[in-house]
Write a structure and sequence with these properties.
9 helices, elongated
Length: 193
C-alpha cells in the first residue's frame, strides 16, 4: 500500500478506537506508519481524512445490510424485504463497539467538525441511492436523483433515527418487526377513505 491507503487504514483504526474528536493527526501517523505531511498532501486535512475513513467504514457495512451473502429472499418493494433489510441493518448496531456511535458523535459535535459534517452531508444522497435498490430492487446506477432525494432520503432518515435510538437506549430501540408493523399501520392509515 502507498501512503494514501496507509493513512486511510490508520484513520479507520483510530476512529474505531478513539472517535473523531479524540483522534489527532499524530495518532493517525503513528497508526499508519506515515508522516504528518502525508495527511495534507493526500487528503488536505486531518478532518477530511477522518471523513473519508468514516465513509469507507460505512461502505464496508453495506454488504452486511444485504445479509450473509445469500440472495435476499423477499420480493423487492415488499414489507417482507423491508423487514429483512432493516433486520440486517439493526444487527450491525447490536455488535459490541458498533461504529455507529461515530455517527452520533458527528451529529452532536457537527459544529466543531464542519469539514467532516460537510463531507458526510454530501455523502448522504449516495447513501440513500444505495438503500433504494437494496429495498426496492434494481441497480444503484439507475436510481434517479429525484428518487435518491425522496425515497433514498426517507431511508437515510430512518437509518439516522435508528442509530440514535440504538446508541441512546438499545433496550427500547425498535426491532425490524416493530418498524415493519409501524410502516404497515402508516400504509393502512393513508389508504383509508
Amino acid at each position: 500500500m502507498g501512503h494514501r491507503e496507509d493513512l486511510l487504514e490508520g484513520a479507520k483504526r483510530c476512529l474505531l478506537e478513539k472517535g473523531f474528536v479524540r483522534t489527532t493527526a499524530r495518532d493517525i501517523v503513528k497508526e499508519s506508519g506515515t508522516n504528518l505531511a502525508s495527511i495534507g498532501y493526500h487528503y488536505g486535512s486531518k478532518d477530511a481524512l477522518l471523513a473519508q475513513a468514516y465513509v469507507s467504514l460505512v461502505e464496508g457495512l453495506g454488504d452486511a445490510f444485504e445479509g450473509d451473502g445469500t440472495a435476499m429472499s423477499a420480493e423487492p418493494g415488499s414489507l417482507e424485504r423491508f423487514q429483512e433489510v432493516w433486520s440486517n441493518v439493526i444487527a450491525t448496531m447490536r455488535e459490541p463497539g458498533s461504529m455507529w456511535h461515530l455517527s452520533m458523535e458527528i451529529v452532536v459535535m457537527g459544529d466543531q467538525l464542519p469539514e467532516v459534517r460537510d463531507h458526510l452531508a454530501r455523502a448522504q444522497r449516495e447513501a440513500g441511492r444505495g438503500f433504494v435498490p437494496m429495498l426496492m430492487g434494481g441497480r444503484e446506477e439507475d436510481v434517479s436523483d429525484e428518487t435518491a432525494d425522496t425515497l433514498g432520503m426517507f431511508y437515510v432518515t430512518l437509518m439516522t433515527g435508528l442509530i440514535a435510538q440504538w446508541t441512546f437506549d438499545p433496550k427500547t430501540a425498535p426491532t425490524s418487526e416493530q418498524l415493519t408493523e409501524g410502516l404497515r399501520q402508516v400504509i393502512a392509515g393513508t389508504t383509508k377513505s
